[in-house]
Design goal:
Oxidized Rhodanese, domain 1; alpha/beta; Alpha-Beta Plaits
Length: 214
């Protein structure tokens, strides 16, 4: 089924997106985003933290477009990107807008993905590296269950049950990964972006990159 046909057959548009960006007004953002979603009859979850925003929302396509227009009117979210899918029914029972310490929990104090983000590596560039046989640590930052559903050939599985286990598992590999390029990947992109500065903090700074999601 083509995307056009899927849209025509669906009543609900689903979006997922995140942005690491400094937010010094989280408490003000909560009622603002809550009010917008209620007015547009959107359901799902919005997580807000000093490090950024992470959201999953669903509703009528016109309402989704209106929400994104409103969100992007704030320069901090001007180029906010989302992934879209479509369904016949509303997948969420209610709306939740919450303040969190992190938009994706890693549990490491003073880790700032906004200060020195790892360089982005395009899918095409990664493919070229692999085709050329370039030595690279291809690191899957997802949990064990997700890894078992499928991953890149040669990818490293840290055998973690949750993302909070990643720091300890990665630290144990510091010596083995020294002086090697590291490419992190995950499902939606948010975990590999958060993992990259952690790897940099392990003195793997110059060699860390992140790429598109698996």
């Amino acid at each position: 089924m083509s995307e056009t046909t899927a849209v025509e057959n669906a009543a609900i548009e689903n979006i997922a997106g995140y942005r690491f960006v400094y937010l010094n007004d989280v408490d003000a953002q909560i009622p603002l985003q809550q009010g917008r979603c209620v007015a547009l009859d959107l359901r799902g979850t919005i997580l807000l933290a000093p490090e950024g925003i992470n959201l999953f929302l669903a509703g009528a396509s016109a309402a989704i477009s209106a929400f994104l227009d409103q969100l992007r009117s704030d320069q901090r979210f001007a180029d906010f990107e989302v992934k879209r899918s479509y369904s016949k029914a509303q997948p969420f029972a209610r709306l939740k807008v919450k303040r969190k310490a992190e938009i994706v929990p890693l549990g490491v104090n003073n880790l700032d993905p906004n200060r020195a983000p790892a360089p982005r590596l395009s899918t095409a560039e990664l493919r070229r590296w692999l085709d050329e046989g370039k030595e690279v640590v291809l690191l899957d930052t997802r949990n064990r269950f997700e890894f078992e559903q499928g991953s890149f050939d040669g990818a490293i599985d840290l055998n973690i049950s949750k993302f909070r286990d990643f720091p300890e598992a990665a630290a144990a590999m510091r010596d083995a990964w020294a002086d090697k390029p590291i490419v992190t990947f995950c499902t939606g992109g948010i975990r590999c972006e958060k993992a990259a500065p952690l790897l940099q903090s392990l003195v793997l700074t110059r060699y860390t990159s992140s790429t598109a999601a698996f």
